[in-house]
Design a protein that fits this description.
alpha+beta; globular; five-stranded antiparallel β-sheet
């Protein structure tokens, strides 16, 4: 199951999985008029990036920093069944 985490101003969606065996999958997807979608996958806690498609090095630097700065929250929300469950909404 994937849970929403945040939508950025450019419509980039960042989602995460539930915690499975101590790991969390973070999936980033941005709509693109030319290519359809750009996407990247990161696995926490090891910050292993896979399947990066369509993003520039500069964009990936931004996403890598974003994930590092938010990893503690993403990991916690993954344990709780997503941000909506963690916040009791």
């Amino acid at each position: 199951m994937m849970y929403p985490y945040v939508t950025l101003n450019d419509d980039t969606e960042i989602t995460h999985s539930e915690m499975l065996d101590g790991r969390v999958k973070v999936y980033i997807e941005t709509p693109d008029l030319k290519d359809g979608f750009h996407n990247a996958t990161c696995y926490l806690p090891e910050y292993a990036w896979e399947e990066v498609n369509g993003y520039s090095d500069e964009e990936m630097d931004y996403f890598k920093e974003f994930v590092r700065n938010n990893a503690h929250l993403i990991m916690e929300f993954a344990k709780e069944g997503g941000i909506l469950n963690a916040s009791n909404f």
